[in-house]
Amino acid sequence: MTGSKKLALVTSKSPVAKEAGALLKARHPFVPMDEAEIVVALGGDGFMLETLHAMLRKKKLKPVFGMNRGTYGFLMNEWRPNGLDARIANAKSFAVTPLSMKAVTAAGKTYRSPAINEVSLLRETRQTAGIEVSVNGRVVMQELVCDGVLVATPAGSTAYNFSAQGPILPLGSKLVALTPISPFRPRRWRGAVLPDDMTITFRVLDPEKRPVSAVADQFEVREVERVEIKADRAEALTLLFDPEHALDERIAMEQFNI
Are the CB atoms for 67 and 187 separated by under 8 Å? Predict the structure, then answer.
């Protein structure tokens, strides 16, 4: 049993998730989100990200135990309707540190957004992007000619970052992956692994002729001119996993899923 822990339930809009939610509601006395100590989320990875972003916006960070009622469900536990209280009581907790993105557009507008998986810069037209890369105020690459570039957290390193040939980072490593997307120049550069307390800055060299968008998970800003990214440990999130499906092991094992 979860003892005095109060649970809230959130579900995605899919019929499968709603059906699972109705089944759990018939078995457990869930409370409203504001009263809860732990959140149970039913859906896929996209819905988990939505749930975490909603908590970040409201500044109400609570541990989340997800169960997969979506497609892949990398950030979710296996769906089982029985034994929820015992599973939560025995769950392992993992801290996930989001990135903080500050994007300034060519028009001079500033946007800020957290990213749990990654911040990516992507070309908006058929022309390649030209991007200057700086770390802690020092220019480390004068021009990266590419389709884009991204910065990924350990939790997000198995997603878009891995598809772009970036490294998988161990959870809790306090590292980020800086990974180019289809780089044209320099040809042999495949990215870098950096401490997450460093500030990474991208400057778009020709934002008018070669426009670039910045995407923090699911939040997009178009025609950016400058983007600053750093980890925000003050907003660390907590995910709960069954011991046999712990997130750190799942991330490590992704390196062998050939």
Answer: no
Residue 155 to residue 172: CA distance in whole angstroms: 9
Beta bridge partners of residue 117, listed in sequence order: none
pTM of the model: 0.89
Rounded to whole angstroms, what are the CA distances from 242 to 67, 94, 127, 157? 10, 11, 46, 21
Strands (E), the chain: 7-11, 38-43, 64-68, 92-96, 99-105, 110-115, 118-123, 129-135, 138-146, 148-152, 175-181, 192-195, 200-204, 212-216, 219-221, 224-231, 237-241
pLDDT at 201: 98
Structural domains of the chain in order of their starting residue, each with its CATH number: 7-97+236-256 (3.40.50.10330), 99-232 (2.60.200.30)
| Residue 196: count of CB within 10 angstroms of its CB | 20
CA neighbor of 67 nearest in space, from 45, 89, 52:
45
Concatenated DSSP letters of 101-162: EEEEETTS-EEEEEESSEEEEEESSSSPEEEEEEETTEEEEEEEEESEEEEE-TTTTTTHHH
pLDDT per residue as tens digits for the range 43-99: 999 999 999 999 999 888 999 999 999 988 889 999 999 999 999 999 999 999 999
Of 92-106, 199-213, 234-248, the range with the lowest mean pLDDT is: 234-248
Active site residues: 45
